[in-house]
Amino acid sequence: MVQKAKILLVDDRPENLLALEAILSALDQTLVRASSGEEALKALLTDDFAVILLDVQMPGMDGFETAAHIKRRERTRDIPIIFLTAINHGPHHTFRGYAAGAVDYISKPFDPWVLRAKVSVFVELYMKNCQLREQAALLRLQLEGGAKAAAAEAKEPAGLLAELSARLAAVEEQAEALSKQLDDDSADAAAVATAAHLERKLTGLRRALDALEPGTGNGAASVPSQN
After folding, report:
1. Burial classification of residue 122, based on how many CB atoms lie within 10 Å of its CB (0-12 exposed, 13-18 middle, 19 or more buried)
2. pTM exceeds 0.70
3. Do you know which InterPro entries this protein is assigned to (predicted)?
């Protein structure tokens, strides 16, 4: 069973949080509320999130300051942040949002369909990255624990490599389809860059797996880091 992605909704007004939940409920993911920047940072200490929707104007710690804290933490610095704001002070205000680490900056009132589409892209990228990490972990475990079995029975490693290759091929196919979708939809540059990064990691895994095939002369090839 595929685990749902978590989406963090940060706004000091309950009615705004309720509206966001209504818009994003169709994505069938886990929506987590935070009514302040402090509450959002607390949630980020324990949970992993696919994307953060962050209101700019909040009492106390505003959206810009909250984003700065998020980007300073190694655990959370790569989580995409979409700023939501009811005011627009011109290009300088927008630039400040991007400078704080946002991947997008949307003024209220916003189009629910557009917001849902943008969030769905980052959710899908997050799910693909999770799947890739799981496959990489499985590959490492099999490589570490399969050395003795390979010496005892020659057929077993071949079957194992075939299974891993098939699983990796499935992820590669999904990543290729996602990249085509981003090209067709003229998606955000940040989403395209994340998808390209995912494809590079898949290419590294494929090369490492190919190096383990009999006859390559490199049966001890190492698996590239997926960080």
Report:
1. buried
2. no
3. Bact_response_regulator, CheY-like_superfamily, Sig_transdc_resp-reg_receiver
Q: Given pLDDT bands bounded at 50, 70 and 90, which one contains residue 43?
A: very high
Residue 34 burial class via C-beta count within 10 angstroms: exposed 0-12, middle 13-18, buried 19 and up: buried
Same structural domain, 21 and 76: yes
User: 78 lies in which domain range?
Assistant: 6-110
Q: What is the CATH number of the domain that holds 67?
A: 3.40.50.2300
Looking at the structure of the chain, the number of domains it has is 2
Nearest to 50 by CA among 115, 109, 126, 112: 126
Q: Do the domain assignments include residue 20?
A: yes
Distance between CA atoms of residues 162 and 168, nearest Å: 10
Contacts of 151 (CB under 8 A, 6+ apart): none
